[in-house]
Amino acid sequence: MSKYTLEFKMKIVNEYLEGNYSYKDLASMNGLNHSIIVRWVQRAKINGMSALASKKAKRSFSGQDKVNILDYMLTNGLSFNETGAHFDVEPSLIYQWKRKFDEHGIDALQAKRGRPSKQMIKKKAIPKNKLDALKQENLELKQQLQTAKMELAVSKKLEALAIKKRRRKNNLPK
């Protein structure tokens, strides 16, 4: 639901267009920010009073639509508000597109909604001889690891025996 009714927006726009009040006067009288009124008036001038109605469904824009809107804005030197009024798009949405385009390029404007489609990825078949070679290498590495573990255990045991022997030697009377 829209924050402001269509009747309220039309009343504000008509008061401005009749020349009775300025943007700031209308804003202070109705407790609004003047930029909202500017946006309403621009939309009404370009697209008619029907443009003030709240949108029932979200519009989706293709990447090409976004590029075209940004191109139009930059080519004609328009502001976000003016461009939004021309295409009946929220200026904040155009600003987001511009920021994404500036930061990440044209690819950032493509729709990325939903789960990415699953693509059938074929596993690369490893040649039989290569598979055998990998199995053999794996077996050799396991044997090397086992040998290293045994050597470490033997060296720890020898060190423990040497420490024990020194303690006995130091504790015995002369």
UniProtKB/TrEMBL annotation:
<dbReference type="InterPro" id="IPR036388">
    <property type="entry name" value="WH-like_DNA-bd_sf"/>
</dbReference>
<dbReference type="InterPro" id="IPR052057">
    <property type="entry name" value="IS150/IS1296_orfA-like"/>
</dbReference>
<dbReference type="GO" id="GO:0043565">
    <property type="term" value="F:sequence-specific DNA binding"/>
</dbReference>
<dbReference type="InterPro" id="IPR055247">
    <property type="entry name" value="InsJ-like_HTH"/>
</dbReference>
<dbReference type="Pfam" id="PF01527">
    <property type="entry name" value="HTH_Tnp_1"/>
</dbReference>
<protein>
    <recommendedName>
        <fullName>Insertion element IS150 protein InsJ-like helix-turn-helix domain-containing protein</fullName>
    </recommendedName>
</protein>
<dbReference type="GO" id="GO:0006313">
    <property type="term" value="P:DNA transposition"/>
</dbReference>
<comment type="similarity">
    <text>Belongs to the IS150/IS1296 orfA family.</text>
</comment>
<dbReference type="Pfam" id="PF13518">
    <property type="entry name" value="HTH_28"/>
</dbReference>
<dbReference type="InterPro" id="IPR010921">
    <property type="entry name" value="Trp_repressor/repl_initiator"/>
</dbReference>
<feature type="domain" description="Insertion element IS150 protein InsJ-like helix-turn-helix">
    <location>
        <begin position="66"/>
        <end position="116"/>
    </location>
</feature>
<dbReference type="InterPro" id="IPR002514">
    <property type="entry name" value="Transposase_8"/>
</dbReference>
<dbReference type="GO" id="GO:0004803">
    <property type="term" value="F:transposase activity"/>
</dbReference>
